[in-house]
Every structure is written in structure tokens, then in C-alpha cells.
Amino acid sequence: MARMKFLCDAERCIECNGCVTACKQENDVPWGVNRRRVVTVNDGVVGAEKSISVACMHCSDAPCMAVCPVDCFYRTEDGVVLHDKDLCIGCGYCFYACPFGAPQFPQAGAFGLRGKMDKCTFCSGGPEPDGSEAEFKKYGRNRLAEGKLPVCAEMCSTKALLGGDGDVIADIYRQRVTVRGKGSEVWGWATAYGPPPAKPAAGSKS
Amino acid sequence: MLLTRKSASAAAAQPRLSSGLSATLAHTIDRRAFLKRSGVTLGAGAVAAQLPFNMIGKAEAADAPAESGKVEVKRTVCTHCSVGCAIDAVVQNGVWIRQEPVFDSPLNLGAHCAKGASVREHGITHDSHRLRYPVKLEDGKWKRISWDQAYDEISQKLLAIRKDSGPDALFVVGSSKHNNEQSQLLCKWVRLWGTNNCDHQARICHSTTVAGVAQTWGYGAMTNSYNDEQNSKCLLFLGSNAAEAHPVSMLHTLHAKENGAKVIVADPRFTRTAAKADKYVRFRSGTDVALLFGILHVIFKNGWEDKEYIHQRVYGMDQVKKEVMEKWSPEQASAVTGTSVEDIEFVAKTLAENRPGFIIWAMGQTQHNAANGIVRASNILMLALGNVGRSGGGCNIYRGHDNVQGATDIGPNPDTLPGYYPVFVPGSWAHWARVWNIDLKWLQDRFAPGMIGKPGMTVSRWIDGVLEKNDAIDQGPNLRAVVYWGHAPNSQTRGLEMLKAMEKLDLMVVIDPYPSASAAMFAKVRKDGAYLLPAATQFETEGSVTASNRSLQWREKVIDPLFESRTDHMIMYQLAQKLGFADQLLGKKDGKQNIRLVKGKSGMDEPSIEDILRNDVNRGCWTIGYTGQSPERLQAHMRNMHVFDVKTLRARGGKDAKTGYDLAGDYYGLPWPCYGKAEIKHPGTPNLYDTAKNVMDGGHTFRALFGVEKDGVNLLAEDGVYSKGSDITTGYPQFDHVLLKKLGWWDELTDDEKKEAEGKLWTNDLSGGIQRVAMKHGCSPFGNAKARAVVWNFPDGIPQHREPLYSPRPDMVAKYPANDDVKVLWRLPTLFKSLQEKVVADKVAEKYPLILTSGRLVEYEGGGEETRSNPWLAELMQDNFVEINPKTAADRGVREGEYVWVSTPTGAKLRVKARVTEGVGPDTVFVPFHFSGWWEGQDMLPYYPEGAHPIVRGEAVNTATTYGYDRVTMMQESKTTLCQVAKA
Fold first, then answer.
1. Of A133, B555, B692, B924, which one's alpha carbon is 20 to 30 angstroms from that of A103?
2. The dihedral formed by the CA atoms of B475, B499, B945 and B933, expressed in degrees to the nearest 10
């Protein structure tokens, strides 16, 4: 059984926001709710600027799921973390727990009351029947049920954002790293692997 | 241990993916399909066959009542930039409900940027910010009127102006967003009215490129394709921020990089593109020639130039070398550009060691007062390295709008008829009158006496056509009426003066899906005199569109024109009916008719798009090979994208299931030139001037456009240089009936061809016989010549560095002044040196010490009205801003996110937010140009028609930009001017 994952290759991400608008239009996400967004760090700093697209990472051991007081989260057999908006109370505790800022809270009502939590569904809807109108209204499209992958990854301008079975994505990424001789080498890289190796001698093909 | 709850709702417990798959697609998502969708082909460099996907998904399933009804998939192309990304639009009951990526497209492989991923918004009617019905300005209010009333009033006013002042009192600003057929029709429309006063976005986008590059080697277009970068070893971006302006092109760029190509970005700003480069080189805005020649100096000094290539294929390099060696040592180049000598040497060495390579540019090179020289300096650099005319190397010139290439080729240009036939050559008119099937004498009589051969005014200067003293302009009347037909006003410089021009106009007509900033600007200064007509978008019609790589793609109509909008070609026809030249527009004469009428919206007649392509464009545009791209061939390509190779763009085989058309050997989209008639099946030309291929395989030579000899020096290619398989192995001139007879090839023409070809050239032989026979012998119809490093017919034969008119460096102005003023240039007096000297004398650079440059953002396009009306895009970029260096900001007490005033020497000031970044140096600030709707701090919302204002409004940088034009093409100098920034 698949375990669905996203991987954003910061060597390729150019902050074009294609993933962001793809998600917006496919899932009819309202203004102010960002299931996915692109972050650029060290903007304008030569040699240090990196962009990366971030959404729910569909954690295998999801903190949101662990802390939710009403247990509205569930995981599909494909490893996608979803939630039931009928159960959700919009408390925002998952927002505390999530290390990526994935949970979103639409503003609703005259006093800006928090609505139900909304987040990336890996384009696989929610608990309602696949492809139903109710599912679309609450959660957006169910592309997985149509045999498609998340639209953000499918439309990524440089194929930086990969989405799908973690095994397959790992293969793709591994191949890329082999061809170009390096990974993204961004956040946490040095913690895990130590400082990056010295650059290969001039003239050698990377 | 997992923290997942044990029991969830029933639906959640199901194996969603597998059940979903088996239910809808059976076995289609196998590993191959999955890899395709995940983008592995580019990552691995392999190109597997594309798997067709079920685009409809569950829309037809019985359990989805909301999505019942007939579902169709229409294949179209994004309308936002020149990459040409294909889109599958899912339409149900005439409503555009979804958009799906087209993984089969060899150009974009399913990829989209923010704009491409959001085009479905064009089909959404609720919360649309489009212009819904015709309106007129009356007593300062936009009032709804009917189409009939609009046509009546507009035509009466136009005819009255024509009667009083002659046809030259009208200026028509056409559009690079029209498809090819509409562009050609508008070009014709304006001539039938009787003037050359028409233009479009290319003027302010790549006019300097088109002129400079064509004058170097024959055609003024991108030499290769985005895809061909995958075959390159070095990519020098100089004046292009592709990551924001052409994001999907980066798919090919980054693939090249990952396979070892060196990527260098030279730019005044550290852009998103620069962030992906191996090396970033900063230089002062407007000093491109100095930088390029500094690099060239190092190449010559080290003997890295390709001497054999230069000897055989380049004219005048010795003269350039002499000048470069004398004037442009790296030290001198460094003094002018601010780039270090080490960086200049590094770039030269990298280019020399990594061939073939590209230089890539866009507006960064073109928008300067001597930009015709900048682009030629780029050509010369590539010629010196022997990079031009081969796969993996050349000048990849990124065009802007989706069809700016096509509109340049065959659209409303002031100096050329379709196919670059110059208006000042009488034969051009004879040729097109014949093709259009109209009476030549009648056509000539439509023009004011003596004006038919004079190139018209340009979109960059129409305001001077209104404001300039009448005795100073080179036409009878001043301009009295302007039609903005799909063009934003805020992309042109000198906004303050544009308002003055609008105040003076008798009539302004805006024909656009969005009312555009023109409406608000006009209503700000006027109580009446303007009409806005809602045009349909390109998703509401069909037609061909030419991508930057010269490939033509066919858009199917996705939906019917929304609201009361009508297609542009319908409007052209209906207006022509009112103005009295409808028959000529359709080419109706002697019992023949070029363009049939077909039923369009609400059963109304409109000209057939296919007929325009087949009977006007294909029959007339011999010069640039727009003759082989029949609608049938283009449509077959769109249906069979999967057979085209991503690296070569060539079809390895395949037959179109619908028509049986054999695709084998065709290059995707039949990139022009695609010579001869469609029947001879020229495959198109993927890379210009490539002698390694046979002409019938898309091979080429440099064009013999400039004679055979100059001052005793041979201009034709030296012996031994010819395209593969050529029967002539020396240089040769362009083909005509005489050459064909001399060669003994005349009798290879059929009898019918002979009848037509007698006395003709390859450019006006409507039988196509001359081209056919030349190519049968492996020869380029346009000859085999040398490229010109010296364009002797330009004011600067050898490119010169010339300081911006508003230069921050008076010391450099003394050394590198602008050209002399010109009394008449494109019908208008034009200032260069006198203004530059005045700027120095007035010490403008002391009061306005910062360089102001402008450019694109990924979220918006062009003037931005359309994209700022799209909520998915508008949300991403809600304020206009100025990028300012931390030091510059700190010195002015400005902090990130605060409002500042950006003021310029015109007296205008812009209220924008400060974005503090090291991306710009301390001497430069950057403001994107896509915004409009604020005017010097004031929101112009009240001046828009109700409900048709963009969601995001902001200060237009061009409200404040200054005077300055290219000496050859009248390109505006919008990349370099001066400003000051102060806390608001």
C-alpha cells in the first residue's frame, strides 16, 4: 500500500506559486486560506536564497492527530492525513502542534469567528463519498479517487514539488541527486549529515 | 507507536486510492503513468512515451449529480506568456469546470506557474471583474449602452474625424494577445482604414531585438527553443528574469544545469533566476554593451574566438575586434558597469570553455535608448564564440506575451505588412493587395497622399502624436482618436503626459475583456469621449498562437464568449461594416472571397478563423515561412503532442487518428520558417541557421538580406559552408526566377508554378514553386550569406555603449553620450543628446540619485489588469512595492513594509510599500510594472465602470517614468531612469 508524501526540491523551486494557485482553483479554496504556500528564505542574499513549497506533510505520526480534542483526524490507507469537518470544533490546537503551519482557519461571521479547520487533503477529499458534491464543498476535489495526484505537484513549473507514493518519489529524487551530485542541502541538512563536502575540482562535471 | 485513532468513519477506513482507481480508471495508474505524473522524465533526463489520462475523472459518474451533463475536454494554450503551456479545459454544459495539465506537451510537460495554473478563472462568471457590456462615458459616468449604439456612435465619430483630418488622425493600439488570425486581420483592418498608425506590445517589448537581430542575420526571433537549452553547456542570462517572467522555461534551464550546463545570471538585481545560477554578476542598469564588450575583449585577448567560423560565416568581426580591443579592456568595462574585472574574466572564460552556449535576454536588454546596439552586442558575442546556428547555442530571446511573436510576425505593425513586408516598398502593397484579393488602387487611395510608404507612429509615442506641435510632426493631422484594442496604457512610460494626451483626444475606444487602466485614467480627466467594448478572451475563440520558439499551437474554443462580450474578429468585421470596408476585409472581389463568414455568438456572422490562416496568412507570408502551417497540420499536432521528442521537438513517427496525417519528421508546432505550401510538408525550423541539417529537415544558413558584397568584401558565406545536402556548396543569393533559370532548375517547376513564378522572387511567388525547387536541391530560399557584426545601415554600425538619458553618472555621459537628436523618427521629433545634456546641466542626478528600474512579477502579466482581477493571483500580491537595499532604506529612515514615496524628475510620485532586500544594490531600486488603479497615492476605484475594477490596485510605475527612446525602433527606455525615495 502506498504511503503518500510530498517532497519539494529546493534546488528547483523558483517561488512561482504555481502550486499555490493550482490548489486554490482546483479545490475552490477561499481567499485567506492557504493550504499550500511558498516560502523564500534569505531573500536577495547571493548564494543563500532558497525557496520551498510547504503544505501539510501528511506525517506518519501526525501531531495534529495526537492533540485533537475531538479526534477528528484520520489516516487513509494511502497514508494521507485527513479530518472530518463535521467533528472539528475549530479550536486550533492542531495549529499549535503542527510544525509546518498547515492548519488554516477561515474567517467567518461578523466578528471573525474561527471556522472549521482547513488544510491540504493531498487532493483526496474527506469522509464523504468519493467525488460527491458534499465532499467537494467541504474538502475540495478528490483527485486520488480519480487516479490523479495532487494538483500542486502535477502542475509544478519546474517539477520541484513531487507528490505521490513516498517510495517512487524517493527514487525520483535519488536519481536527481545522483545526476547533479547534490541534494537540496537546506534546513537541517548539516544537523543530519554535517557540513556539505568541499566542491569538486573545477572542470569536473557535476 | 502511531497515534492514529483506531476507528474512523466508514469512508475513511476504505482503501481510498485503490478503490478509487479500480472504480474509475481500472489499471491506468501503473508505474509508468505514475512516474510521468511525478515529473520523473525530466529528473532522469529520459523521455518516455506519454500516457493519455482520463481527464474527465468522475464527472460522468452517476453518484455526482452536481457534475452531470455533457463533459468535453478542450485543448487550449495559456494566454499569459510566450512559453506556450498547453491546458486541457474540462467543460460541462458549456461551463468551464476544471483545468488539467497536459503532460504530453513537449513545451511544458504539464507544468504551470501561478498564472497558468489559474486560467480557469476566465470562465467563472460569479465575481467576475470583466467588462460585461459596452459602456460610454457620459457626464463623467460610465453608462451602459447597446452594441448597436456603440457601433453607430463610434463609427460616426471616426468617419467625421476621417473627413475633417484624414485617416492618419487615428491610432490603433493592437494586441499581442490576439491570436495570429486576429492579428493579421487587424493589420489589414488598419490599412483598409487608410493609415500605418498601428502598433502593439512588441514595440515596448522586443522591437529593438527584432530590428537588431534581423539586421544581423536575417530573422529577428529567438534562434532556438526553450527545449534546446537541454542540449547546451552554458546559459548566460543577461536581461532576463525567467524564473518570474517565463517560469516554465526554467524546467528546461534547470534540467540543463543538472546535467552540467553552467548557468550565469548578469542583472542589476539578484533575481529568483539568479538564485538558481552557478554565478551571479551584478552590473549597473543600462551598461550592457560595456559588459558584453568587456567579456568579448577577454575572449579576443585569449584567442578564444572561433576563427574558422568567423571567417566563413561572419562579416565585419575584424572591425568590431579592433574597436573592442581599443576601447573595452575589462578595466574600462568595470569602470562603466561596476562589475569586477574578475567577474568579467570569469564569464568570458566560462563561455569559452562551455560551448555551445546561449545568451538569453528579455526586456533587460531591450528597453534602453541604444538597445538596438545592446542586442547586437549579444549577437556578436555569440558569433565570436561560434555559437549561432547550432543546437544548444545561440540567442534565446524570450518574448513576453503569449502571441507577441505572432503579432510581430503578421500583426498590426506601423512599418510592416504581415510577414515583415516593409510599407516603404511599393511591391509589398502589390503583394498583399493580391493576397487579400482587394484592388490595389482602391487601397492606395484610402491613404492620405504620400503617406502609404511612411511607417506610422509607435505605441510608445502616440501621446506625442496628440501633444506635439502640428508643424513638428511628419503627417497631416495630430492624432485625434485612439483605439486601445487589447493593450494596457500603464505599460507605456510618461504616464503624466498620457493623461494630458487623453484630455485632448476627441475619441478613445477601449476594446478589451477588462476595461483596463485606460478607462480609469480617461475618466479621471474627462467627462465624455470614451467607449469601452467587452472583447472575448482567447479561451472564447479558436486560432493559432506563436510561442517564443516560433512554434504555432492551435487553441480550441473552450467556452462561448461570456456576458455580452464578442470575439475580436467579430468586432473588427462589424466595425468594418459600419466604416464601409467589410467586403475588403473579407477579400470579396471578382467572384472570389478569401474569408467566409461563419456563425459566431448568438448566430451573428464572424470571419472564419481557419480561412484567415489558410487564405491570407498561408498564402502571403512567404518571407518568414508562415505558409506551411495549415490549420489541419496544427490541429493534428495538438492532438498528438505525445509523439514529439522533448529535446529535439521532432516527431519520431505517428499518424493522426482523425485525419490520417503522417506526423513523422515534423517539429512540434511547425516552428517558422515552415516554407512552401503545406503539401510539401516542410517540417518547420527548430533552430535557425543550423547548417548541420538539410533544409527539408529544418536546416538553414544565414540569410542573404543585405546584398552580395560590401565595399569589396564578400557578404555571402565562404565556400564550403552550406546546409547539409545542399547542391550549391558556396554562398548564394536569395532565390528568384532568374537564379532558378541560371541554375537550370526552372523546368523543375510545374507549368502552373512557372506561370506564377515568372518575374517573381521566393517572397512573392504565390505558387510556392521557387521555394519548393530551391529546397528540393537542399538550398535555403533566402540564400546563404554571412551574419553581420557591423550593421552599417544603423546609426551605430558597431554597437556603442550610450548612457541612459537619465544617467546617474554625468562623468560617463561626457564619455558615452546618447545619439544626436532626430527631427523626424517614426513621424515625430525625438530627443536624445540635448535632453541628456540638460539632465546633466540641471544636476538631476543629485536630486534623484537612485536608479529606478522596473520589471515583472510571476503572479501578474503585462499591465496586470486581467491578472489582478483573478482572485487566486491577486491574493498573492496585494500591494505594489519598491525593492530597496537595506543601506539605502536605513539612510532614509525607511523600514520594511512601510509606505514610501518614489519621486522622479517628471514631478510624479508613487506611493508604494518598501521591500527591503539585498537583491538590489544601494544605488538601485526596483518597482514592478503590473500595477495600476492608484494615481500618485489616490485610489482610482471611482473611475472604473461599476463592478469592472481589478481586485488589487496599486501605483503604476510608468506614471512616473521618464522620456527616452531607442534611436532605431522607438523602444521606450523604461529599464533605467532616476528617482528618489522618501518615507511617506
1. A133
2. 130
Rounded distance between C-alpha atoms, residue B526 and residue B614, angstroms: 44
Helix/strand/coil for B278: coil
Query: Exposed, middle or buried: residue B660 (CB in 10 Å: 0-12, 13-18, 19+)?
Result: exposed
For testing the chain A interface, which of B1, B2, B3 should be mutated: the one with the most A CBs within 10 Å? Answer: B3
Partners of A71 on chain B (C-beta within 8 Å) are 5
Residue A204 in any domain: the answer is no
CA distance A23 to chain B (A): 9
The region that residue B398 occupies, defined by phi over 0 for left and psi between -120 and 50 for alpha, beta otherwise, is beta
Domain assignment present for residue A201? The answer is no
The set of cell numbers assigned to B227 is 527545449
Query: Three cell numbers at B650?
Result: 521532432
A77·B14 Cβ contact <8 A: yes
For residues B36 and B923, what is the distance between their CA atoms, to the nearest angstrom? 46
Q: Which of residues 173-192 of A touch B (CB under 8 A)?
A: 173, 175-176, 179-180
- pLDDT averaged over every residue in chain B: 93
Query: What whole-number distance in Å separates Cα of residue B301 and Cα of residue A173?
Result: 43
ipTM: 0.92
* Residues in chain A closer than 8 A to B917 (CB atoms): 43-44
**pLDDT tens track for B619-659:** 999 999 999 999 999 999 999 999 999 999 999 999 999 99
Nearest beta carbon to residue B118 from set A25, A49, A62: A25
Domain count, chain A: 1
Angstroms from A192 CA to nearest CA on chain B: 23
Tell me whether residues B98 and A26 touch, CB distance under 8 A: yes
- pLDDT tens digits, one per residue of B259-301: 999 999 999 999 999 999 999 999 999 999 999 999 999 999 9
Instruction: Express each pLDDT in A48-107 by its tens digit.
Output: 999 999 999 999 999 999 999 999 999 999 999 999 999 999 999 999 999 999 999 877
In a domain, A202, yes or no: no
Q: Which residue intervals of B89-206 are DSSP H helices? A: 147-165, 180-193
Q: Which of B848, B833, B861 is nearest to B932 (CA)?
A: B861
The structure's pTM equals 0.93
Q: Domain containing A84 — which CATH number?
A: 3.30.70.20
